[in-house]
Write a structure and sequence with these properties.
15 helices; single chain; Spore Coat Polysaccharide Biosynthesis Protein SpsA, Chain A; alpha/beta; 4-stranded mixed beta sheet
Length: 412
């Protein structure tokens, strides 16, 4: 045995400023009464990542650093950090997030005192690093819960009721060797948890030990991979749940009568629709109303017409989708450099809305007939009968739009 109690596993790639910030927290705040190590796997960074790591090694942080010769992709790098850890326990740490050291130590004590538990999960905080305060918890655990080896039905019900994503945990190293298998179509935390539950008990603890930085002091408004997952990965979420249930069924822990199968399928559907509704809000907040409407149709078909994530956007969604459809069609048409707004008395507000919804700066907006070649001009008419007038003048017929053309496909 290595004598290391905990491996903190950090994959990274070309994020020296974030990594420096993370290691500064490690240096200042992570005071444990047991031996620990920091395993950093560098996916062939070309910035100053290696120099940052060497600096902290020189200052005494117990870092083991591995650097690839070529980038192997994010999934391989995460796998590497977990496989290279020597600790009795392992925890994944994103290179821009923070551990809560005393809560980590409490969780390690819990695992020491409950040797049958293969992994201990907990909710995590979204953290404002600028204001130095916690914004919210991802999910709630009212009291510490231990689930017995193989209790798939009970764990699935628990996750469904609390809308739990079992992403943040401290893992016992020995079962991790066969539990961690990368997945593409099934969101990995659910299969991961299934394989731990297949080897022993698992726990959900009340106290968070992880902070996911939502507002960074290093770079404001940065892209987060977790946000991208929320916006696109609902089918992978469902796939992960189905993987979990499949594993339980194959182990004989779930009695899949036709009625039980229908019940579990409905639970998977509801869980997924709730994630799609969150994705709807994210797309609408990014002003991509066309994608938001696509999700809207699926969410409403699923029976969630009055979902609280949708409600604030429903009244203005048709107009936003119609205008953004016009914008996207004009942007996409090769050679179009002018948009004529015919019959509109005040175009400034309309142009501003179009620009806000993505109209290219290369497209000039005008309300007057211009010298631009007809084949380079799109037209938006306020009166439907004017469409034929502009087509008769020689404007391209599929680039003369009326609101009816843009809105008839929007069914609310």
């Amino acid at each position: 045995m290595s004598g290391i109690k905990l491996s903190i596993c950090i994959p990274t790639y070309n994020r020296e400023a974030f990594l420096r910030n993370s290691l500064t927290y490690c240096e200042n705040d992570y005071k444990f009464d047991f031996p620990f190590e920091i395993v950093i796997c560098d996916n062939a960074s070309t910035d100053g990542t290696q120099q940052v790591v060497e600096e902290f090694i020189g200052r005494g942080l117990p870092i083991r650093y591995f650097k690839r010769e070529s980038n192997a992709g994010a999934l391989a790098n995460v796998t590497s950090t977990l496989r290279l850890g020597r600790g009795e326990y392992l925890i994944y740490l994103a290179d821009d997030d923070i551990l809560i050291a005393d809560a980590v130590a409490d969780t390690i004590r819990y695992l020491d005192n409950n040797p049958e538990v293969t992994c201990a999960h907990a909710p995590w905080f979204f953290y404002d690093e600028v204001a130095k305060n916690d914004i919210a918890k991802f999910y709630n655990v009212e009291e510490d819960r231990k689930f017995a080896h193989g209790s798939f039905g009970e764990v699935f019900q628990y996750m469904f009721e609390r809308h739990i994503f079992p992403e943040i945990a401290i893992y016992r190293s020995s079962p991790l060797r066969s539990a961690w298998t990368p997945r593409e179509f099934c969101f990995y935390p659910f299969p991961f948890l299934a394989h731990f539950l297949d080897q022993g008990a698992i726990a959900f603890l009340q106290r968070p030990f992880y902070r996911s930085i939502a507002n960074s002091a290093i770079v404001r408004d940065r892209q987060q991979e977790g946000t991208n997952d929320v916006m696109t990965s609902w089918d992978r979420y469902r796939g992960g749940l189905e993987y979990f249930l499949y594993t339980g069924a194959k182990r004989g822990a779930l009695n899949l009568t036709p009625e039980a199968r229908l019940k579990y399928d409905e639970m998977c559907k509801i869980f997924t629709l709730n994630r799609m509704a969150v994705a709807f809000r994210f797309w609408a907040a990014r002003k991509n109303f066309i994608k938001a409407y696509e999700l809207y149709t699926r969410i409403v078909w699923g029976g969630m017409l009055d979902h609280p994530e949708i409600r604030p956007f429903r009244e203005r969604l048709p107009l936003m989708v119609a205008i953004q459809t016009l914008v996207s069609e004009v942007n996409a048409a090769i050679g179009i450099n002018t948009l004529l707004l015919a019959g509109f008395t005040e175009i400034t507000a309309l142009e501003n809305l179009m620009r806000e919804l993505g109209l290219s700066e290369r497209v000039k907006v005008t309300k007057e007939l211009s010298d631009s070649p007809l084949e380079c001009t799109a037209v938006f008419v306020s009166v439907e009968r004017d469409r034929e007038y502009f087509v008769a003048l020689g404007y391209l017929p599929n680039l003369v739009f009326h609101e009816h053309d843009l809105a008839r496909h929007i069914l609310m």
